[in-house]
Each structure stands twice: as structure tokens, then as C-alpha cells.
Amino acid sequence: MVFTAGQIAGILEGVLEGDPEIAVHRLAKIEEGEKGSLTFLANPKYTSYIYSTKASVTIVNKNFVPEQKLNTTLIKVEDAYESFSRILEYYNQVKNNKTGIEQPVYLSDNVSYGTEVYLGAFAYLGNNVSLGDNVKIYPNVYIGDNVSIADNVIVFAGAKIYSESVIGKNCIIHSGVVIGADGFGFSPNKNGEFQKIPQTGNVILEDDVDVGAGTTIDRATLGSTILRRGVKLDNQIQIAHNVEIGEHTVIAAQTGIAGSTKIGRRCMIGGQVGIVGHITIGDNVRIQAQSGIGGNVSSNEILQGSPALNYGDYNKSYVHFKNLPKISHRLDELEKNSIHPKGV
Questions:
Q1: What own/partner pairs with CB < 8 Å and gap ≥ 24 does 42-50 have?
Q2: pLDDT in tens, the chain (344 residues)
Q3: Please, are residues 242 and 201 in contact by the beta-carbon 8 Å criterion?
Q4: What UniProt keywords apply to this chain's record, in alphabetical order (predicted)?
């Protein structure tokens, strides 16, 4: 895809300084910019690179005044970082704007879909699947019976969406995601063997949910596993059966959440966090990476450690922990002196 500086300035409502016809076909960091690339300058630490960059077009803040000669066309905007993010979003929209039905695709009975839909080769759509407008289903995607997918959803290659799942508007589901597999439900019988408990519920993703590559979200035993509006999941996360995650909560990679746990709104959960089942975590909670959560957490807490402590208490305790060898040595000396006082 090729855009001129004039077109980009128009999209961003920016002020152009330089050649409006110069064309760009890729995006780059300012320090790695080459001819034909578009870059941006937002952080003052990188100002020196604008004088050496070979990028054809650079987005800058309106208050930027060059102190040396430039070899790049400028587009001046209120917020260079935000504007570059808009360009990235626009670029993705254009890049992913596939339409039509490739072959072979398997469509079961009573499949319905809206306008501007893309179905990639080797996709499978089960009975009574419903797709909204502008849904993009990439190759090798499996969609089970009675799945509902709303408008403007992208499902990347190789994702699996089991039966009865409900996907809201503007969701992005990345490659390798499995939505709606059985929850981990087993019950020991009188012989000490584990019998499977049927998992008869479903998974609901509300609007604007992002699910990273390789993440798994299990169906509920009864009822629904629910990710509320605006939830963002990183790669390789495990969400167990009957979990509920509140609006606009974000979770980093390799976190595992056990069954029936409820997480509040606008929480931030770091990588490799382990959360036990059947607990409640309040709103606006911050959990640092590699923490272990074994009980209920009140709103607005910041936690770290395993088992997790209040963030401030953890840091104070850690100071003592890393000094344990010295403290132990001092205690040994005190004990020796109390038993055998010097000079006695």
C-alpha cells in the first residue's frame, strides 16, 4: 500500500512542510527510517535522529522547530504519538480489509452472514452460525454450531471457536486461540477414579475484546464464562470455566485464572500471575508479575509476591529478605556472646 504525504496529512488533519507528493509504503522507527518509510518523533530523547533519518515523511508535534536542515517531509500535528497510532490503526484496517469467500470453505446448514464478509480458505462454519457485517474469518478457522459473531470482528488463522459461543462487536481473536473448550471439571468416584463433569455452558465475549495468540477460554460448567466489554488479553493466557472478567481489565501473558473467579473492572494483571478459583477480585486492582493470588482482593489494592502481599509491605519485607544472610550471621554472633560473653 502506497500513500502520499498529502494523503497522510489529510487523514491526520496535520500541517504539511515539504513535498506533498512524496510517497511512503512502510512504517519505521525514526532511527531506522529509510526512503519510502513513514516515522514519527514524540519523545525528545530521539530528537537527534530526525536530522539523520532517511525516512521520507516524519510526523512531529506542532511545536517542533528544527535546528538543522532536514531531509524528511514533516507533518505537524497536536500529538505525534497519538497521530502515529491512528495511522497504524488505519493501516491495519486497510491491510485487513479482505472480502469475499475463498475456496474451499465449508458452510453448514443455516449459516448466515452480513455484508463485506471475508471467509478464508479451509474455514469451517457449523450449523446455525451467524456472522455480522464486516467479519473477517481467516484460513483454517473452526467455528462450531450455534456460534454468534457480531459486526467488525476479526478471527485470525487457526483459531477455534466451540459451539454456543457469543462474540460481540469489534473483537479481535488471534491465531491459536481456543474459545469454549471444556472446563477442567472432574469428580472422584468411590474407586478413586476421576469422572468427567459435563461442561454444558458457553463463553461470552462482549464488545471490543482482544484475545492474544494461544490463549484459551473455557466454557462454563453451567451458565457462561464472561469477558466484559473492553477486556484485553495477552498471548498464552488460561481462563477457566465460569470466570468473569470486568470491563477494561488487561491481563499479561502466561497468567492462569482458575474456575469461578470474578475479577472486577479496570484491573491490571502482570505476566505469569496465578489466581486460585472461587474468589473475588475488586475493581482497579494491580497485580505485579509472577504473583500468586490465593484469596479475595479488595478494590484498589496493589499486590506482589507469592502468596501475594500488599505491594508496599512486600517491598519492605524484601529488603529484609535479601539481607537474611547478614541478619542470620548477626544473630549467631549475639547468641555466642550471650552464652560466652567476651572477657568472662
A1: 42/79, 42/80, 42/81, 42/84
A2: 789 999 999 999 999 999 999 999 999 999 999 999 999 999 999 999 999 999 999 999 999 999 999 999 999 999 999 999 999 888 887 777 889 999 999 999 899 999 999 999 999 999 999 999 999 999 999 999 999 999 999 999 999 999 999 999 999 999 999 999 999 999 998 898 999 999 999 999 999 999 999 999 999 999 999 999 999 999 999 999 999 999 999 999 999 999 999 999 999 999 999 999 999 999 999 999 999 999 999 999 999 987 776 878 777 777 777 778 888 878 888 887 776 666 55
A3: yes
A4: Acyltransferase, Lipid A biosynthesis, Lipid biosynthesis, Lipid metabolism, Repeat, Transferase
Residue 59 and residue 75: Cα distance in Å, rounded? Answer: 5
Half-sphere exposure of 238 (CA within 13 A, CB side): 15
Architecture of domain 3-95: 3-Layer(aba) Sandwich (3.40)
Sign of CA dihedral 168, 98, 10, 89: positive
Please report, for the chain, the start and end positions of each structural domain, with discontinuous segments joined by +: 3-95, 100-313
- Contact (CB, 8 A) for 190 and 182: no
**Domain with residues 100-313, CATH architecture:** 3 Solenoid (2.160)
CA 344 to chain centre: 68
Helix axes 5-12, 80-95, angle to 10 degrees: 110
Taking the C-alpha atoms of residue 165 and residue 147, their distance in angstroms, rounded to an integer, is 5
Q: Which residues contact 107 (CB under 8 A, 6 or more apart)?
A: 125
Q: List the catalytic residue out of 25, 241, 248, 278.
A: 241
* Active-site residue, 329 included: no
Buried b (16+ CB within 10 A) or exposed e, 264-293: bbebebbbebbbeeebebbbebbbbebbeb
pTM: 0.82
Confirm if 132 and 151 have CB atoms less than 8 A apart: yes
